[in-house]
Amino acid sequence: MEKRHSILSIVYVVLLMLAISCNDMKKEQEAETVLETDTTTIVGEALIDKNDPSIWIYDFESDIPVRNRRVQKGVFTPNQWIDFLNSQNEKVHLEFLKHSRDTLFVSIPESNFLTQQMGSTGADGYLSVATFTLTESENVNYVQFDFEEGDHAFPGTYSRQFYVDRNKERFQ
């Protein structure tokens, strides 16, 4: 009898956890889209322009990129994503160096605008959006940016998880 009671307790706890997680997911989905019109959507604090071709845009309120539109993962090569990012920003030019394992290596030969003129938030926005966009490529989880360090940006290896973890720390 005691064994049956223990099994029932375990089943009850598992079912309760499933119900709670499904409810939390539903709340997240409801909270995510606040307002949607024919041309714009508000996600969190970010106003998303549906006419903007960007895959990711920077939400300055929460300091993290938000998805502007979906693209099937692996459809575009890293070089195509680099060309896309370069077409979106005339002042910061990315160059492909190599793709090794799960890391894409890129350089910014003329980094003065990024590191000295965009400000810290602008530079962070650019690097995070570039990281999220470039990791849309198949087998790319990290982006190694090589450029001359400046007041507002630092070279290094970035991932989506880096920005997620950083934001968890900021809001705790």
Report on the architecture of this protein.
With 172 residues, this protein is of the alpha+beta class. It has helices spanning 2-32, 78-88, 112-117, 119-134, 160-170; strands spanning 33-36, 40-43, 46-49, 56-59, 64-67, 95-100, 103-107, 142-146, 156-159.
What is the strand and helix layout of this fold?
Layout (H helix, E strand, L loop, with lengths): L1 H31 E4 L3 E4 L2 E4 L6 E4 L4 E4 L10 H11 L6 E6 L2 E5 L4 H6 L1 H16 L7 E5 L9 E4 H11 L2
Parallel strand pairs: 7-8
Antiparallel strand pairs: 1-2, 2-3, 4-5, 6-7, 8-9
Summarize the structure.
With 172 residues, the chain is α+β, with helices and mostly antiparallel strands. It has helices at residues 2-32, 78-88, 112-117, 119-134, 160-170; strands spanning 33-36, 40-43, 46-49, 56-59, 64-67, 95-100, 103-107, 142-146, 156-159.
Please provide the count of β strands.
9
**Morphology call:** globular
- Give the topology string: H per helix, E per strand: HEEEEEHEEHHEEH
Rounded mean pLDDT score:
78
User: In percent, how helical is the residue content?
Assistant: 40-55%
End-to-end CA span = 45 Å
Rounded radius of gyration (Å): 20 Å
Indicate the low-confidence ranges by residue numbers.
22-48
| Tally of individual helices | 5
| Major sheet summary line | 4 strands, mixed
Strands side by side in the biggest sheet: 6-7-8-9
Descriptors:
alpha+beta, three-stranded antiparallel β-sheet, about 25% strand, about 170 residues, globular, 9 strands
